[in-house]
Amino acid sequence: MLKGKAAVVTGSTSGIGLAVATAFAKAGADVMLNGFGDAAAIEATRAKLAADTGVTVLYSAADMSKGAEIAAMIAEAHAAFGRLDILVNNAGIQFVSPVEDFPVEKWDAIIAINLSAAFHATRAAIPFMKAQKWGRIINTASAHALVASPFKSAYVAAKHGIAGFTKTVALEVATAGITVNAIAPGYVWTPLVEKQIPDTAKARGMTEEQVKREVILAAQPTKEFVTVEEIADLALYLASDSARSITGAVLSVDGGWTAA
Ligand code: NAD
């Protein structure tokens, strides 16, 4: 389905990004991975994905909190693949704290990685997509792009920002063959969710089990975590030609969370 296409997926050494990159590679796209982690483990992931799918899989260590590194990553992908068709702005971090105690450096990091990184990557990618008259930009938003939860001020602000950024850019490039959409997952079982459980437990004075049952899955009417594969399947559809008329959309995959 994506044979001959080239994609960059930020934050793809883990969780949702890795599932999206894997789905794209299986569909025939060359892929640039990005994200942090153990260098040997990342190289093993890269090599296995390339061997399993037969596409070219590259890796960029660009830090999504640094605009210049993001621009360089997009330029590097275009130079290596000779094209750039799909950009998935997915890297993200979380920090949970009452707003009056929220560490300033955590606020700055979340806004940089979860919001500004999408701006830096998008502005660098659009000229290549315009020249090809075809492009797909997919931003990983969140149910927290539509509704709030306490103690997540930076994350909720950044994700609401991503929804607005998605709609704005979609309008700007609507006649250029480029679509821009956001996927808004509910709780997906990934390291990002697992890591916030101890802090949420502390902030709410609960046990970790209570947090999972009474805080996390309480918000999700299905009472089940979304899987990374479900998000990857939607990203794959949005990247396809069939989805050419879907643009500026924030698509919920949240087990009914934001219907409530
Ligand atoms: P994850 O922790 O498994 O993956 C995050 C990825 O981002 C990793 O590859 C990590 O290395 C990378 N990353 C973090 N900081 C980076 C930086 N400065 N530069 C480059 N890469 C960086 O988490 P995930 O749950 O897969 O999250 C992926 C996206 O999905 C995030 O934007 C997150 O906000 C969003 N999301 C997750 C959930 C969920 O329940 N897991 C729900 C809604 C939205």
UniProtKB/TrEMBL annotation:
<dbReference type="GO" id="GO:0003858">
    <property type="term" value="F:3-hydroxybutyrate dehydrogenase activity"/>
</dbReference>
<keyword id="KW-0560">Oxidoreductase</keyword>
<dbReference type="InterPro" id="IPR011294">
    <property type="entry name" value="3-OHbutyrate_DH"/>
</dbReference>
<dbReference type="InterPro" id="IPR002347">
    <property type="entry name" value="SDR_fam"/>
</dbReference>
<dbReference type="InterPro" id="IPR020904">
    <property type="entry name" value="Sc_DH/Rdtase_CS"/>
</dbReference>
<dbReference type="Pfam" id="PF13561">
    <property type="entry name" value="adh_short_C2"/>
</dbReference>
<comment type="similarity">
    <text>Belongs to the short-chain dehydrogenases/reductases (SDR) family.</text>
</comment>
<dbReference type="InterPro" id="IPR036291">
    <property type="entry name" value="NAD(P)-bd_dom_sf"/>
</dbReference>
<dbReference type="GO" id="GO:0032787">
    <property type="term" value="P:monocarboxylic acid metabolic process"/>
</dbReference>
<protein>
    <submittedName>
        <fullName>3-hydroxybutyrate dehydrogenase</fullName>
        <ecNumber>1.1.1.30</ecNumber>
    </submittedName>
</protein>
<dbReference type="InterPro" id="IPR050259">
    <property type="entry name" value="SDR"/>
</dbReference>
